[in-house]
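Quick note —
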Amino acid sequence: MPRLPRPNSPLALALLSVAPFVVAALVVGPARADDPAPHVIVNVGRAGDHAVPIALPYPKGGASQAQDFWGVVKRDLELTGYFTVLDPNVSLEPGDAGVEPGQFDFASWRPSGAALLAKTVTVADGANLDTQVWIYDVSGGTKIDAKSFAAPSTSTRALAHRVADAIFFAATGKKGFFDTRFAFAGKFGDNKEIYLCDADGYGRRSITKNGSINLNPRWSPSGAAIAYTGYAAGNPDLYVADLGKGQIRRIASKAGINTGGAFAPGGGILALTQTVGSDSEIFTIDAATGAALSRLTASPGIDVSPSWSPDGSQIAFVSERSGGPQIYVMNKDGSGAHRVSFQGSNNTSPSWSPAGDRIAFVGRDGNFDIFTVKTDGSSVIRVTQGAGDNEDPSWSPEGDYIAFSSTRSGAAHIWIASSDGNFQTQITTGGGGYTNPNWSPHLSW
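Predicted structure written out below.
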């Protein structure tokens, strides 16, 4: 087996806890530099339409982490709505078969009905775990792609997520989302703190531990910081957690509310809601210093929940200027405000899609549900219906999925849906308390 690349030094990320959480920098490349893989796209249709059967044998190589690694990859693939992972024991393949072309017979896998085959090798090499993944079209008997990865052996989950992303991309031509995380407000005791978890709902760790109420986390565009509203000082103030340095700064603390902090695409500006007399309006501040920049709204009724367009030229927000709360869009300087939600009398929590063409929001129709609408107010799509309360939508980096908090299984959990609502699945498990999920950009840690 060829020598796999070494990782860079691990990035120690002090997530404001007693012990730092160490994550891996992963090195990615073709398994053989002289053997570039043809890119074959498998037509998998819409998420949830027909799950493509994929064979995922247990890893070769003998690493003690292999079983855990396999379980993470399996769950990741199934969470996309595109795959059914077959029982790894369905093959007629002998145990000494290899993973590379010519080292096994495709005929051993065809009776299983597998359309795709992903073979992996995980080898413990000192303090590191080296991995290869080979992806094949079973019916055609051809290799689709091959990748190699390396990470510290303590980062098995991160390594498995990268492998799942590689399989997803090789099979669909779409970028996966398993190098992302969710920030959320979680209540797992007496208080509500800000937490992170992996894109599959596992690996939960806390950002705040102040014993107070902390809400509405929002990622910076780089994924290096999170803005949130906290009551640690007795007032709803806006804070920014620097994840690399393990530091928290309070950057907006005017009397009244300082909430809904949303980073502009460049990361240097935050839009937020602050109190003006008995009203609330939207302002911008410097994301580094908290210095006031501009007041964007000045209308009767509340103006809250800013969400930037991906090009930074516009902001979606909630306003009561027409009566009940509705979704509006304005230019970044506050001009040109116009309403884009017209169905129902209670529409809140806008989230602008990465493509810039749609806005997700929460509408109340008996229960709370997720909708999307074009930025001109046309073409409303209902994403959820008839299943508990569904709130706080947040788009995946490519815009193929929307995360939200749902009570359909009892207590609040993070769910994801394909952007058309065709596929929906629960991400977090166990006891509830998962609210305000915000989907990160792609992360290197």
